[in-house]
């Protein structure tokens, strides 16, 4: 009789053990899903580029009307923005390069790339491959966010600002703007910088002419001097 009860007890233990494992697995699954949802909730929501939407809704129709394009695909658009900070003094002081790269990253939200000399120049004690600055190339949303900030926040902070020159186009609809001081960007704390640094901002478009490029950038808010 005792021998008959033993298999029953073993079976009951096995079932209880299996049930316990199943419960633990289910709890672990719920916990994992909860963590996943919490992580997703904690992830910052992507901010839409309002300037990109403005380009689609406002700039494209106006460009088509002005230049008589047959299709919206012919309308010039922004392709990329290149921010370049030349730091020739970094040859003697490498810390300038490090701080410049950090400042560019803060300004653009993207890691800066070190630029190097393409050829040697004995008069400047410059050898090919030596670091001479840093740069960032922005595309898509970051490009639009940066231009939006440049037009509406940064340029108005320039002392005695009266607009940008319209003489800085390259003949193919691309525009380069020189900035003398990085401190006009809100991300830069004047008390924490080691040196005032300038930069060039090149706005690359798909325009075929300077006239088209200027009209596009003017529609997007770039304040050209009158």
Compact overview of the structure:
The chain has 226 residues and is of the alpha+beta class. It is built from 5 helices and 5 strands.
Description:
The protein is 44% helix and 15% strand. By secondary structure, the protein is an alpha+beta fold. The chain has two domains: 1-43; 50-219, 50s Ribosomal Protein L5, Chain: A, CATH 3.30.1440.10. It has a five-stranded antiparallel β-sheet. It is globular and about 55 Å long. The N and C termini lie far apart (108 Å).
Quick tags:
single chain; about 230 residues; 50s Ribosomal Protein L5, Chain: A; globular
Order of helix and strand elements from N to C terminus: HHEHEEHEEH
Alpha plus pi helix count = 5
Instruction: Specify the biggest β-sheet.
Output: 5 strands, antiparallel
CATH architecture of the largest domain: 2-Layer Sandwich
- The CA-CA distance between the termini, in Å, is 108 Å
The neighbouring-strand order within the major sheet is 2-3-1-5-4
Q: Which value, in Å, is the CA radius of gyration?
A: 29 Å
Poorly predicted parts: 26-45
Strand content: 5-15%
CATH topology of the largest domain: 50s Ribosomal Protein L5, Chain: A
Helix content: 40-55%
């Amino acid at each position: 009789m005792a021998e008959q009860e033993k298999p029953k007890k073993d079976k009951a233990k096995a079932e209880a053990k299996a049930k316990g494992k199943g419960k633990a697995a289910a709890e672990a699954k719920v916990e994992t899903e909860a963590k996943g949802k919490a992580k997703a909730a904690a992830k910052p929501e992507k901010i839409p580029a309002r300037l990109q939407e403005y380009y689609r809704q406002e700039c494209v129709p106006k460009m088509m009307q002005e230049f008589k394009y047959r299709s919206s695909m012919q309308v010039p658009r922004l392709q990329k923005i290149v921010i370049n900070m030349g730091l020739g003094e970094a040859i003697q002081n490498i810390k300038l390069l490090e701080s410049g790269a950090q400042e560019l990253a803060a300004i653009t939200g993207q890691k800066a790339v070190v630029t190097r000399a393409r050829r040697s120049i004995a008069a400047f004690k410059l050898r090919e491959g030596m670091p001479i600055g840093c740069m960032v190339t922005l595309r898509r949303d970051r490009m639009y966010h940066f231009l939006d900030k440049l037009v509406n926040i940064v340029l108005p902070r320039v002392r005695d600002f009266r607009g940008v020159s319209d003489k800085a186009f390259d003949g193919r609809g691309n525009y380069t703007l020189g900035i003398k001081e990085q401190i006009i960007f809100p991300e830069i704390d004047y008390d924490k910088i080691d040196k005032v640094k300038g930069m060039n901002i090149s706005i690359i478009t798909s325009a075929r002419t300077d006239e088209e490029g200027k009209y596009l950038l003017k529609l997007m808010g770039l304040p050209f001097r009158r």
